[in-house]
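To the wet lab folks,

You asked to see what we're planning to order before we commit. Fair enough. Below is the target structure as tokens, and below that is the sequence we designed to fit it. If anything looks off to you, flag it before the synthesis order goes out.
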């Protein structure tokens, strides 16, 4: 899949690179070209739309698989002007981004705002705050985000009384009631098990206050809250599903299909996923499914990989100006409607959700346009106050999560042998020796 994305990006990048030359040949006035680094395949399509509507500025897209770790550019590498992607917010990258406060403003008493500014109130406030550095300067603009969801089948909808959200305790209690066993004591139905999905373990730990975040250049967390989360998950398994072994035996026997098929089978009640995965499914795959927002105290934690956009500080002044032109265009509500429409019309066989694979960071786009394209969002969008942005995470977060945090949670939340689980500190030392 990643190889096909890279090939698509390469082809589109080559095509986009030719466009400025064509316009230069047909028009005496100069045309400038900006370079956008991204790890989001959709940006190539958005750049095509931008280039088609702008004569004086053209965008060329360069795909970077490990975008957050790509700064600064190599000595022999052309530097970017704009950078759009995930996990850009960390202390190591802050110095590479220009101040974007001049792109943001508020409408005056007549409801007017400069065409070179975006109204701050258009954004989800917690996402906008996420893009500020330690000095309070806006160095990143939020573009898109995803949220955790719990899915279940139409057949089991009467069991779920809450119309919009589910808390961890509700999932646990409803799942236990759903369970069924044969005379031998082996489970024939199991509502839900924490150990089925490692991302659920991580999300549950965050929801219980584990607070994984960057401190300096290192990974930090709340040890006491992490222990509370681990105990909560162990007790969940023990009291609802007997043991971690029983959960894994059931999973091995019945849950070998995609999660949307698992809940449709009637063998389990719930499955965990994210909006990026759920809304990328084909309509026929979701027509008999429902979802609820996974919440804690009526708060929904946004996925770590929030997409943000910034301007490379060392880019030439004209390029920085033109890069801002692109970002202002991309963060316009009507232009985002056109992006959504184009994505659906092109129907390239690799459907991706929304804007850059997620909800738009602009409230109005989600409220007015998303339900048109995703019918099951009609009347079921969370309010601004419910959404909480992720914490800044270290540059090597993807590796740290995969090789340190997830393995620790998998061991420490088991009902058998959890006392022997390696601590995160121990795993960090091993990780540092092997991957640094």
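Sequence we intend to order:
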């Amino acid at each position: 899949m990643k190889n096909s994305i890279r090939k698509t990006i390469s082809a589109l990048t080559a095509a986009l690179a030719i466009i400025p030359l064509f316009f230069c040949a047909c028009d005496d006035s100069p045309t400038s070209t900006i370079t956008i680094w991204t790890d989001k395949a959709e940006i190539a399509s958005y750049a095509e739309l931008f280039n088609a509507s702008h004569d004086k500025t053209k965008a060329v897209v360069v795909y970077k698989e490990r975008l957050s770790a790509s700064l600064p550019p190599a000595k022999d590498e052309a530097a970017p002007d704009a950078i759009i992607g995930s996990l850009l917010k960390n202390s190591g990258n802050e110095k590479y981004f220009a101040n974007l406060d001049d792109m943001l403003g508020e409408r005056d008493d007549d409801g007017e705002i400069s065409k070179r500014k975006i109204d701050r109130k258009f954004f989800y406030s917690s996402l906008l705050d996420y893009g500020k550095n330690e000095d309070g300067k806006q160095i990143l603009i939020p573009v898109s985000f995803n949220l955790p969801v719990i899915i279940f089948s139409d057949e089991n909808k009467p069991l779920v009384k809450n119309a919009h959200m589910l808390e961890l305790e509700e999932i646990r209690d409803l799942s236990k009631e759903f369970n069924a066993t044969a005379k031998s004591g082996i489970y024939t139905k199991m509502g839900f098990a924490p150990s089925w999905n490692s991302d659920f373990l991580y999300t549950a730990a965050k929801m219980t206050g584990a607070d994984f975040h960057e401190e300096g250049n290192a990974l930090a967390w709340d040890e006491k809250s992490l222990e509370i989360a681990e105990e909560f998950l162990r007790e969940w398994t023990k009291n609802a599903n007997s043991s971690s072994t029983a959960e894994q035996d059931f999973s091995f026997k019945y849950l070998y299909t995609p999660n949307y098929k698992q809940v449709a089978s009637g063998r389990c009640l719930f499955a965990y996923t994210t909006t990026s995965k759920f809304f990328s499914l084909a309509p026929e795959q979701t027509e008999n499914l429902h979802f609820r927002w996974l919440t804690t105290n009526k708060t929904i934690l946004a996925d770590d990989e929030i997409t943000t956009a910034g301007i490379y500080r060392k880019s030439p002044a004209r390029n920085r100006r033109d890069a801002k032109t692109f970002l202002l265009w991309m963060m316009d509500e009507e232009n985002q409607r056109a992006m959504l429409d184009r994505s659906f019309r092109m129907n390239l066989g690799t459907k991706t959700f929304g804007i850059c694979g997620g909800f738009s960071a602009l409230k109005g786009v989600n409220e007015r346009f998303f339900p048109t394209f995703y019918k099951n969002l009609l009347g079921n969008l969370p309010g601004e106050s419910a959404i909480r942005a992720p914490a800044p995470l270290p540059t090597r977060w993807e590796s740290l999560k995969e090789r340190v945090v997830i393995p620790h949670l998998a061991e420490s939340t088991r009902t058998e042998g959890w006392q022997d689980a390696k601590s995160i500190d121990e795993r960090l030392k091993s990780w540092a020796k092997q991957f640094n």
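Structural context that might help your review: The CA atoms of residues 23 and 405 lie 51 Å apart. The chain has a mean pLDDT of 89.

Thanks,
Computational group
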